[in-house]
Known about the structure:
This protein is α/β, with parallel strands linked by helices. 49% of the residues lie in helices and 17% in strands. It has seven helices and seven strands; from the N terminus they run E-H-E-H-H-E-E-E-H-E-H-H-E-H. The protein has helices spanning 18-31, 41-53, 66-83, 110-116, 128-137, 148-169, 183-195, and strands spanning 6-11, 37-40, 88-93, 96-98, 104-106, 120-125, 172-177. A five-stranded parallel beta sheet has the order 2-3-1-6-7, sandwiched between helices. A two-stranded antiparallel sheet has the order 4-5. A hairpin with a 5-residue loop joins strand 4 and strand 5 (104-106). Helix 2 (41-53) crosses helix 3 (66-83). The two termini are 21 Å apart. BIS(adenosine)-5'-pentaphosphate is lined by residues 12, 14-20, 40-42, 45, 58, 61-62, 69, 73, 92-94, 97, 107-108, 134, 138, 141, 178, 180-183.
Amino acid sequence: MVNESKIVIVGGVPGVGKTTVINLVLELAKAEKMKILTIIFGSVMMEIASELFNIQDRDKLRKLPSDKQKIIQKEAAIRITERSWHKMTIVDTHYTIKTRTGKYLQGIPSWVSNALKPKLLVIIETNPEDISKRRDVDDSRLRDEENIDLLKEHQEVNRTSAITICQKTGALLAIIKNKQGQADEAGASLFRYLKSI
Ligand code: AP5
């Protein structure tokens, strides 16, 4: 049976504000009585990491050896596909993950994109200076230290990764700027894109 779900992948470097923007979309959707499911890829990975490797802290996920991260990632893609069956679904995730050695791990390699079959990819971006400030004031998470040049590089790598996924899957691509103090505008843009697929 064909999965008729409409999966939209939303990614961006940690702390850019993707979860904030997605939560704003959910409020807009509620006001219009539109059903949207949100799945946080990292939360599904946490369930699996806890079952397989007894990991309890989500900020420790990206520090695991990459072969373990890939095992968890593969199982997460299967669970997300099952949970999103026939639903409009936002998958809150990362195009690339900075590992503890500084190398980038693909967030949506072929075993993830083949399972999810996304219709739309969205990159949330803003200028590196603002991301750095947001990470500094966000006490809820243990964010990595990335200087402005590395944040710029990480955003560039994310664009390349997203375009490669579009080439493989035929998904469309949108880039949304989450400017300082303007998360509402970013949320409204994302909501417009969702309604158009
Ligand atoms: P995940 O749970 O997604 O965590 P994260 O990316 O590290 O961080 P967040 O998602 O919490 O940050 P955010 O960008 O959503 O920012 P927020 O809205 O909080 O992932 C956890 C882990 O799972 C990853 O580290 C990785 O290991 C793993 N993982 C996930 N997907 C994977 C995959 N596909 N493959 C392998 N591993 C994967 O906002 C941050 C702050 O900014 C807040 O204080 C907020 O108030 C503020 N803010 C937001 N917008 C604005 C604005 N416009 N102006 C001013 N302030 C703003």
